[in-house]
Amino acid sequence: MIFGKKNVPRPGEKRRTLRQSENAAVFILLPAGERLPCVLKNRSDKGALLVVTSVLGIPAEFDLQLGSLRQRVAVVRRDVGKIAVKFV
Fold first, then answer.
1. Could you identify which of 4, 15, 21, 77 might form a hypothetical disulfide with 8, taking C-beta atoms 3.0 to 4.6 angstroms apart as the criterion?
2. How far apart are CA 42 and CA 6, in angstroms?
3. Model pTM score
4. Domain extent at residue 75
5. Assigned domain for 6 exists
């Protein structure tokens, strides 16, 4: 999945793949067909950081949609208003 254009290297970055800043409107697709709007804050080749209104009710795996693109993801970390996901 290809989102965004800019590489954002950070001082002291230890990740194997660099994150790219995004700020794109995306949707979390729930099993019942519901679409939850969220913001794709940044991404790498391995995963992404999503900004959400609430982490409650979001399953461990779901599809992420940007326009006509869909990508299966798995949650690796939840924090207040944020979900880190890996691409599966």
1. 21
2. 10
3. 0.79
4. 18-87
5. no
